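In response to reviewer comment 3 from the previous cycle, which asked for concrete evidence that the modeling workflow produces usable outputs, we include below a single protein chain processed end to end. The sequence was submitted unchanged, and the resulting structure tokens are shown without manual editing.
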Amino acid sequence: MTFGIIGGGMIAKFHARAIQALEGSELGGIYARDPAKAEALGKEFGCRYYSNLAELLNNPSIDIVTIATPSGAHLEPCLAAAKAGKHIVCEKPLEINPNRIQQMIHAAKEAGVVLSGIFNRRFNPALQHLKLALENNRFGQLTLCDAQIKWFRDQAYYDSGAWRGTWDLDGGGTLMNQAIHTIDQLLYLVGPVKRLSGSVATLTHTRIEVEDTAVALLEFENGARGSIQASTGCYASDGHPAQIQICGESGSVFMKDEKFSVWDFKDSLPEDAIVHNTLMEGNEKALGASDPKAINYIGHQRNFEDVIEAVQNNRTPLISGQEALKSVQLITAIYASARNNGAWIAL
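The workflow returned the following structure tokens.
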């Protein structure tokens, strides 16, 4: 498969590295609106470069495009790519509100192309072990299921781009931008939320429209209760890992990024030894918690591999448009609750 990239920022470079690591695929071109940036990226990654999006989309050798533009600028290139018959992989969030995402899903369906979001953390082995434990009902009745994203971004991060921290192009703050990966994991693991109450604030940054701190109380459809805590105002020299904590009547698991700090079940199984021997936490630094560049591209590579397999086997990708929609629906509901003084909102 040959890929094209739409976008000229930091995330586009992650996409390029992940694509170049794919076996049997290649990077066929990069589009950036700024001609100088497009040329620099093309030379850095040894591929064709474009400052005209139509020219990239008209390249018949490109099978799949990845979209790495600001969050509120995903819809238009997605619609153009679908019209050009290209399969689409789009960065998180798929778009900044459910209506725009539904337009993307409809366009891909009408064009007969695959649309996938990027939630690269879904592909780590620890999450798959935890998902299997839940599917096998090892927790019994779930009780408390929480997501904690206590990260740090300095003011320079928000000042580095005019779109950062805006409702129109960022779509929100710490929830929509940083916490969305962990929120997606929580929904993937525990299932739909029945209703929620949310509160947001801007406490440690200036010149931004959106929140840097948020909390939400959740009631899941399976009866469990839970919470989300998210902030980009939690200083740490090496960063705090994002955490998922799942507890039930027969087990408790605490996951920190891609490792476990707790894996404890009332009834042990042989596969628990694999977890304890290979997936318990050590001295790993938190992934992207205090520096957005401090992440690796392995998750993106796995995400892209899933899309290639979906295209080749005519199946739905793991992060389908409908799957990517769920976290945005939840986050926009938290925002709606917060605007209404924390009123409970049914999903």
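Residues 124-291+328-339 form a domain with the Dihydrodipicolinate Reductase; domain 2 fold (CATH 3.30.360.10). We consider this sufficient to address the reviewer's concern, and the full set will be provided in the supplementary archive.
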